[in-house]
Amino acid sequence: KTTLIKEICRQSGVVDEVKSPTFSIVNEYLSQKEKTIYHFDFYRLNSLEEAYDIGVEEYFDSGNLVFIEWPELIHSILPENRLEVFLTYTESEGRNYEIKVLASS
Predict the structure, then answer these.
(1) N or C, fewer C-beta in 10 Å, the chain?
(2) DSSP conformational letter for 31
């Protein structure tokens, strides 16, 4: 997951080191075009309330790019318009990617 996000950030002109925010919950990166990118890892969160406590809705409403690893806990509050990427690994095929574009009607 983080490797994919690193590459997207690199392509977006981020010069900061992109690493998993496992312990910090969220990392903030700045692109060369002065655009902010947020990178969340919700693996360590125990409840949806914790996500609200860190202000996750403000990040979503910021208009900036937001990457989320382990979104299962907050699935009910994810923005309607989003791109979901599912990564799986199989012995025979290696890594598989499934991409879903979700948009409000």
Answers:
(1) C
(2) B
Looking at residue 90, its amino acid is T
The band of 52, judged by pLDDT with boundaries at 50, 70 and 90, is: very high
Note the pTM of the prediction, 2 decimals: 0.85
| Contact of 18 with 2, CB cutoff 8 Å | yes
Strand partners, 84: 100
Strand ranges for the chain from DSSP E:
26-30, 36-41, 65-69, 82-90, 94-102
Per-residue burial over 25-38, b if 16 or more Cβ lie within 10 Å, else e, is bbbebebeeeeebb
